[in-house]
Amino acid sequence: MLKFVFLGLFIVVMILVGIISRRKIQNVQDFFLGGRKMGPWLSAFAYGTTYFSAVIFIGYAGKIGWNFGVSATFIGIGNALVGSLLAWLVLARRTRKMTHELGVSTMPEFFEKRYDSKGMKIVTALIIFIFLVPYSASVYQGLAYLFETTFGVPFIYCMAAMALLTGIYLLLGGYVATALNDFIQGIIMLIGVVLMVYFILSNPAVGGLSGGLQKLSQIPGDGPGLVSLFSAQPLNLLGLIVLTSLGTWGLPQMVHKFYAIKDDAAVKRGTIISTIFALIIAGSAYFVGAFGRLFLDNTMPVGANGKPNADMVMPMVLEKAMPDALIGIIVILVLSASMSTLSSLVLVSSSAISLDLVKGALFPNMKKENVMLLMRALCGLFVICSFMVAVTPNSILALMSFSWGTVAGAFLAPFLYGLYWKGTTKAGAWAGFIGGFAVSLGGAIIYKMDAAVAPNIGAVAMVVSLVIVPVVSLVTAKMPQKQLDKIFGKTETGSLEMEA
What is the mean pLDDT of residues 126-146? Predict the structure, then answer.
């Protein structure tokens, strides 16, 4: 009964925040960026809660923990050091300043202004809207598996309810509602993850940290690899670290948080807060996922189709490990992580079409009121598309890896080099776009969205793009000096600038 009370309170609070935030939405900039006035705590928690969702707690922690054992914890450490700390140090201040001076609000706008290419803006907008749908779908799947196990509600109804809730509170308050809810949800996540670690480790099935490690080591065949430092699959582990850590640098829903932060002082504080948050959340999730085999007698759960389903591991572990009175907290933990991610995905994707494609390229004189109406309509459309993909039989790991690999593979290198290096050419950026995109999409087709290789394909796509952009830029025509002066003139910082 208590878990239903927690769930009800959580939903009420989210909707109330949306209603209150609606009063602060006066224009498109307020809806999408919160007026660029977000402080360090709101920005850091928005970044962290967008980063981690049901995908990590349900899909990744369960499947990766099962396959890699305790070495999966390195993924969480990589998320904290590369995906949070280094991302903030390298991108936050520079992104905030350059986007503010150039007057851009979205990643497609940035590419248009930086490379003087409307075509790049249109392609970016389409990639964002289309290829973030699988990621959103993977989040819905993670939530649905947990709710089905915990509340006994059929899988498809769980996804439909979450899709409806996402649409309601986002349409009400935009980014302001998202940021405020992210802060509340971030606190819930921190409390919930501490409880989760405690009850899983203290459960008799594990018997404490030392007992759990000993039991894992004794599992026939896989045991030694489950407790080794770098697992029995070090290259696959590295691929996951690269995908989930470096991938954030090229994801528009993550970079978006840097546009909205208010000043450099907030960036410095936000860097520390975000890193600590990521270390606690991601490190804990991957660490406890390693003990799933002990709760399930080393037997992978079987789905409704009669096939092994790793996405059911963590829901079953949590149901066995947590007292009924506290399972509601864990449900809210995963729900909190997921709703913040979903809202950011929906917001960024809808803006890509409404602001960048429709108003930015097709109808530049479109009235602001109509842009707002279109953005809200596209929010609903994105949620519906995500729901439709979510009901197809694909693993959470495969969907998320394909989405991250495609989007980050296309955007990461052109965005990173474009921020710092004047020598990045339009041809170089296009080559990075095409190279990263082709590797991810081609790999998904060749390997038929196989979850075992999907993370490695995404990681390779990003690396390929990072190599292609400078190589092509060095042998193609430089951008006009007048254009470069316009881009870098107001953002020149001496120590940060890389000359051509």
Answer: 87
User: By mean pLDDT, which of 70-74, 102-106, 165-169 is the weakest?
Assistant: 165-169
Q: What is the CATH number of the domain that holds 381?
A: 1.20.1730.10
> How big is the CA angle at 459 (ends 441 and 230), to the nearest 5 degrees?
140
Q: Cβ(31)–Cβ(170) under 8 Å?
A: no
Half-sphere exposure of 259 (CA within 13 A, CB side): 22
Instruction: Name which residue leads in pLDDT, 20 or 233.
Output: 233
Region 41-63: what's the mean pLDDT?
A: 86
Average confidence (pLDDT) over 200-207:
95
For every residue of 187-205, DSSP letters joined together read HHHHHHHHHHHHHHHHSTT
- Cβ neighbours of residue 285 under 8 Å, at least 6 residues apart? 52, 56, 57, 60, 61, 76, 193
Sign of the dihedral through C-alpha 308, 309, 314, 317: negative
Nearest C-alpha neighbor of 36 from the set 103, 112, 94, 86: 103
| CB-CB contact of 357 with 262 (8 Å) | no
pLDDT of 341 over the 90 cut: no
Q: Which pair of tokens denotes residue 445?
A: 């087709």
| Token digits of residue 368 | 């602001």
pLDDT at 498 over 50: no
Domain count along the chain: 1
* pLDDT at residue 28, rounded to an integer: 52
Can you state the percent helix, strand and coil of the chain, rounding each to 5?
A: 80, 0, 20
407, part of any domain: no
Which neighbouring-strand residues pair with 38? 261
Residue 471 included in any domain: no
Q: 46: closest CA among 177, 179, 188?
A: 179
CA distance 79 to 244: 7
Checking if the pLDDT of 329 tops 70, the result is yes
User: What's the pLDDT at 385?
Assistant: 87
Domain with 377, as residue range(s), is 2-393
The count of other CB atoms within 10 Å of the CB of residue 299 is 8
Question: Is the Cβ–Cβ distance between 300 and 310 less than 8 Å?
Answer: yes
Beta carbons within 8 Å of 393's beta carbon, 6+ residues apart = 305
Residue 430 lies in a domain: no
Q: Are 79 and 278 in contact (CB under 8 A)?
A: yes
CB 51 within 8 A of CB 262: no
Is 95 domain-assigned?
yes
Q: Using CA atoms, how far apart are residues 322 and 468, in angstroms rounded to an integer?
A: 49
User: Rounded to the nearest 10 degrees, how much is the dihedral formed by the CA atoms of 134, 137, 138, 139?
Assistant: 130
Give the whole-angstrom CA distance, residue 55 versus residue 395: 10
